[in-house]
Amino acid sequence: MRGEAREQSEMVNQILFGEHFAILKEDKKFSLVKSLCDNYEGWVDKKMITLIPKEIADELTTEDHAVTNKPIVNCFIESKNENIVLTGGSTLPLYNPKTESFAIGDKTFHIAKEQVNLPLVKNFAGDEMLSIAFMYLNTPYLWGGRNALGIDCSGFVQVVLSICGYSFPRDAYQQVEKGSSISFLTEARSGDLAFFENAEGRITHVGILINNNQIIHASGRVKIESIDSQGIINEETGKYSHQLRVIKRVL
Asked: Active site includes 65?
């Protein structure tokens, strides 16, 4: 998803496999789209779009969906006798665990149920959320990224929560509006989200607390660093890299 309708434009986001969206405007090669899972807007190359009937789109909007539960997952396309690689948090519309399959348009996809989290099966605890987050350790930082080959701070949080079955906003300044505030870092527990501000007071960074003195976040790469009531302490310099603003509990 790009900021403008051209290949040279900055990537601002990624739409993962199976996520659906509305087309707002069309250019010669690009479509301006609005994601129906988090309302994010941007330009997408038309070659990467599969059109679906409105009635299916409406059904997808109202139904909870299965998602891939590992950073990298293999999926088999029956009609083409080919494999494709899906990333963690990819949506599997109307996945049937008995046949281990789902369909998009005229294509049927097969994926083992062990690699899928089904909707509404369980509530995830903080420790389980962290076990998912740890699978992304050392993933390179990529502005606008949402996958195991490149991810940004809010994309990391969004994808981890998606695998846990929670729909969550895309950017940190939107994510901070969710959940309940925790007054002190000492009261935080695993899975709470910590938000950080810049010099102007804007929320610009987010991470997942492991406990009340460690955090996993995407900064340069997905890594674990120390945190105190002032902020994150860089593992290499020993200096503060991010100033703590607020802690939110969403699970």
From this structure: no
Point out the catalytic residue in the list 75, 153, 164, 242. 153
Crossing angle of helices 153-163 and 126-134, in 10° steps, is 120
Specify which residues 66 forms β-bridges with: 92
The predicted-structure confidence for 66-119, as pLDDT tens digits, reads as follows 999 999 999 999 888 899 999 999 999 889 999 999 988 788 999 999 999 987
Could you tell me where the DSSP H helices lie in 171-251? Answer: 172-175
State yes or no: is 110 an active-site residue: no
* Cα→Cα distances 251→51, 191, 204, 240, 248, Å: 34, 7, 22, 28, 9
pLDDT digits (tens, 9 = 90+) for 170-207: 999 999 999 999 999 999 999 999 999 999 999 999 99
Question: What element of type H or E holds 163?
Answer: helix 153-163
Question: Which among 37, 75, 164, 217 is annotated as catalytic?
Answer: 217
**The model's pTM:** 0.93
Can you tell me whether residue 153 is helix, strand or coil? helix
The DSSP-derived string for 12-66 is ---PPTT--EEEEEE-SSEEEEEETTT--EEEEEGGG-----HHHHHHHHHS--E
The domains located in the chain, with CATH, are: 1-62 (2.30.30), 63-117 (2.30.30.40), 126-249 (3.90.1720.10)
